[in-house]
Amino acid sequence: MYGATQRDLFESDRRNGERLGYSPAYTQPAFTNFRGVTPKTDLSALNLNWREADLPEKERTKHVHRLHPYLGKFIPQLVEIFLRKFRPKAVYDPFAGSGTTLVEAKALGIDAIGCDVSAFNCLLMKVKTDTYDLRKLEREIRDALDRLNKGLTTTLFGEKLELKQTDNAYLNSWFHPKALAELLFFRDVVGDYEYGDVLNIILSRAARSARLTTHFDLDFPKHPQTEPYYCYKHSRTCQPTNDALQFLNRYGLDTLERIKEFSRTARPNKNVIVHGDARFAELPRFDLVITSPPYVGLIDYHEQHRYAYELLGLPFQAEHEIGAAFKGSSEKAKKNYCMEIAAVFGNVRKHIKRGGRVVIVVNDKNNLYDYVAQQTGFLVEQRLKRHVNRRTGRRSGDFFEEVLIWKAHS
After folding, report:
1. From the CA atom positions of the chain, what is the Rg in Å?
2. Residue 109 domain flag
3. Looking at the structure, do residues 111 and 196 belong to the same domain, yes or no?
4. What is the β-pairing status of strands 236-238 and 229-231?
5. Which of 215, 234, 262 is the C-terminal boundary of a domain?
6. Which domain covers residue 294, as residue numbers?
7. Helix, strand, or coil here: 271?
8. What would the 3-class secondary structure string for 177-196 be?
9. Is 53 helix (H, G, I), strand (E, B) or coil?
């Protein structure tokens, strides 16, 4: 739309919205003055319907927010708004996922607690929120990559290195032998470094890209792709990758720069990461919850990082996921989901301080959360509706989600 003004774009979005059956508030500029939020800010006056032009991907995935791909995470700027509005001493996320709430809390110097049943998620949020000796971190990442690049070329005697192998059936089916050997070599050196957790995240991110899958379906691959294929992403015939080395090198240096970038803005705080079931976890006290719960029958959170579990030997506890896709979305599944979500917020109620608030970002199309609030002793204080019109990969479609604000009864 050449020469269009911002108002023209708002009007275009408004007309398209009416045609598709929704009417988001695109007639006024989206709210982007995040640092200007104070306890006196009227949340209902904020236009949170961000378009790509209002909140570009670069901003949504700044610094460590893009340390590793993760499906189902919410926009960090949304978290920032509520942290600045409620100014908690400690914030808790019972579905901490990739650690968005914890990262934003660290950016503001607010103590944070994150709980997740996924061992990989806990590793990821730990790496994102740790405090590092940056010089040592850089030495270790560069040394590990140097050993990898030299080791895959020749041995000390100038002979070709024998490709590493494994008897893991999943790894053997999802990776070309060459790519797998490169990943296994890097895995073997991780234990030699203090910041091995960072190297493991680099390894996992490289493994995701090096799988035998199509370029356009990294999110939900159904089976290994071993033959040339027509690529919808590149509009040509592509070959499955047989190389992990390029990804290890690229993501190693990218991870270093992202951690450096965040270290320049992060403020001292205390982080507590709980690997466990949020229905039963023992927790420190907190005065604010910010979370985005899983939706019923939508995503298998363990399975999306299966390559990491297999490479790193992490405990696979998918059976404890709430609302997992493999559990379906039948009426029985919805009933179980409601009971399990209620148990999570019942546990929140035990640990939240008097007068504390709970902020829940959710697409509550089944109208479950009013019931959950009633059952767990929370007062529904406010509802904000926002339009989500931006999707990634081959996923498409628009939807509304709500931001529910609850208050713990005194």
Report:
1. 23
2. yes
3. no
4. antiparallel
5. 262
6. 52-118+269-301+323-408
7. strand
8. HHHHHHHHHHHHHHCCCCCH
9. coil
Identify the burial level of 330 via C-beta atoms within 10 angstroms of its C-beta, where 0-12 means exposed, 13-18 middle and 19 or more buried: exposed
Give the whole-number percent of the chain exceeding pLDDT 70: 89
One domain, residues 382 and 401: yes
Strand arrangement, sheet containing 378-388: 271-275, 111-116, 90-93, 286-291, 352-362, 399-408, 378-388
Q: What angle do CA 62, 392, 30 make, to 5 degrees?
A: 60
Does 80 or 164 have the greater pLDDT score? Answer: 80
* Cα–Cα distance for residue pair 370/362, rounded to 1 Å: 12
pLDDT at 233: 77
Angstrom CA distances, 266 to 143, 174, 262, 263, 279, stand at 26, 37, 6, 5, 30
- Spatial neighbors of 8 by CB under 8 A, at least 6 apart, are 1
pLDDT at 160: 54
Number of structural domains (the chain) is: 2
Instruction: Check whether 14 has a pLDDT greater than 80.
Output: no
> Scanning the structure block, which residue is given the tokens 């479609």?
397
Can you give the length of the chain in residues?
Answer: 410
Query: Over the chain, what is the mean pLDDT?
Result: 88
CB–CB of 99/266 below 8 Å?
no
Tokens of 371: 């019931």
Q: What is the pLDDT of residue 5?
A: 42
**Which residues are within 8 A (CB) of 220 and not within 5 positions of it... i.e. 6 or more apart?**
none
Q: How confident is the model over 238-271, as pLDDT tens digits?
A: 889 999 999 999 999 999 999 999 999 999 999 9
φ, ψ of residue 339 in degrees (nearest 5)? -65, -40
Exposed e or buried b for every residue in 331-358, given b needs 16+ CB within 10 A?
eeebebbbebbbbbbebbbebbeeebbb
Same domain, 229 and 275: no
Structure tokens at 267: 């403020």
- What does the pLDDT look like over 104-113, one tens digit per residue? 999 999 999 9
Mean pLDDT, rounded, for 380-387 = 90
Whether residue 150 is found in the same domain as residue 86:
no
Cα–Cα distance, 256 to 252 (Å, whole number): 6
Residue 212: pLDDT band (50, 70, 90) is very high
Cα 312 to Cα 203: distance, rounded to the nearest angstrom? 9
Is pLDDT of 315 > 70?
yes
SS3 (DSSP) at 343 = helix
Query: Could you read off the pLDDT of 191-211 as tens digits, one per residue?
Result: 999 999 999 999 999 999 999
